Amino acid sequence: MKSRTGRLTDVRALALPTPAAGYSLHWCPLTPGFGVRVTVAGARSWIAERRVNGKTVRRTLGRVEGRGAISADAARRLMVDISSELQSGIDRMQDLKAERVARVQAEAEDSLTLAAALRTYVDKKRRGKDGLALKARTKADYLAMIEAGGTSSTGKPFADGELYALADKPLARITADDIRDTYKDTLKRSQRRATYAMQVLRAVMNWHGVKVPDSPLDKATPGRDRLVLPKTAGDPTPIPPEKLGAWWRAPTAKTGREAADFYRWMLLTGARSGEVKGIVIEDIDLEGARIVLRDTKNRTDHTLLLSSQAAALVAVHAKGKKPKSKLFDITDPRKALVAINKAAETTISPHDLRATFASVAEELVSAYALKRMLNHADTGDVTGGHYIAKSEAQLRTAWQTVADCIAGAK
């Protein structure tokens, strides 16, 4: 509500009525743009209002009464100064607000721990090329690095996460020595885990814009003080050719048992363990002998063209299930793998089955057919990405050729 009264003085300002709700504005008829704001609680402040660049700008000049109060004459003089500054592009209130915001942000950043920074990172990080969020498995791997160790349900102890020692430390206070010490401690577990932890730490710091002086992870740091992280390299350990037949026969003797068939199916298709566990019945076209793997590691859908052996296993485990049901509804098939390895006298992991598929296929099909079968990205491969196409018939033949070789191994 706005009202017009006589010249505003200290006495008149104190005598203004209190509004029933919100606040009321009372303007001085002799000093345009000068007035008093009265709130429902009875608080009174001198205010100034003027048009700047086509917009109405209102500023509080000071209190009418109480601690820090100023007189009407003092408020008028201040109004002239502020009006002049606004006209020339200076806005002290906005400057103060910006300073407060910067101060609050600085304080927040100074108190932001690595644990909180990592949680924000996994929640909000998006890939630059397609805007997709991190996969759930990747998020879980990152977050496990800041978790404390403990004891499993079987009583087996497990270590703290690789970055746990820094988890509660403010991100902006992590030092170069902190990074080196964490790397050295993690190296005691394995080079791979130490490298992975440093890659995650560097990514989180870069994402939050935190620069550590002389950071051993910064390329600008002199070589003598820098951590040279080895490039990630695969360590394939496929089933030895002379034991492939024995390994295949071990789970085949248990046909119909879900865990055993799960591992056989992985070997026949070259698919990743997590992708196979995610297959639901509605993504299966048994008549067309194909399955679509959804949102794979490289964030694309991937179609598997089933060999006769793989299709037969699908038919067994898809029978009678609802569209949303899992093809292989298993939680922990590791006991079955232990039994298979024992029978075949091998020490094969689930990922080794993908390596075995690739190793067998490498001698039987073209390199570009194998690349399509494994769903590897064409990043940087101009020839494969733009010039070589593989038809469904070619790929289906390739999958069948590999499956026949595996199933026929002696």
Structure keywords:
about 400 residues, alpha+beta, Double Stranded RNA Binding Domain, hpI Integrase, Chain A, five-stranded mixed β-sheet, about 45% helix
Quickly give the structural class: alpha+beta
CATH topology of the largest domain: hpI Integrase, Chain A
Name the overall outline.
elongated
Range of strand content? 5-15%
Q: What letter string, H or E per element, gives the SSE order? A: EHEEEEHHHHEEHHHHHEEEHHHHHH
Strand order in space, largest sheet:
1-2-3-4-5
Any idea how many domains?
3
Distance between the termini: 94 Å
Quaternary arrangement of the chains shown?
single chain
How would a textbook summarize the main sheet?
5 strands, mixed
Q: Would you write up a description of this structure?
A:
With 410 residues, this protein is an alpha+beta fold. The protein is built from 16 helices and ten strands. The protein has three domains: 2-102, Double Stranded RNA Binding Domain (2-Layer Sandwich); 114-225; 241-407, Orthogonal Bundle (hpI Integrase, Chain A). The protein has helices at 10-15, 72-87, 92-111, 114-124, 136-144, 176-187, 191-208, 241-252, 258-269, 273-277, 308-318, 334-344, 350-362, 367-374, 382-386, 392-407; strands at residues 2-4, 23-27, 34-39, 44-52, 55-63, 150-151, 157-158, 284-285, 290-293, 302-305. The strands form three sheets. The protein has a five-stranded mixed beta sheet with strand order 1-2-3-4-5, covered by helices on one side. The chain has a three-stranded antiparallel beta sheet with strand order 8-9-10. Strand 4 and strand 5 (55-63) form a beta hairpin. Helix 6 packs antiparallel against helix 7 (191-208), helix 8 crosses helix 12 and helix 9 packs parallel to helix 13 (350-362).
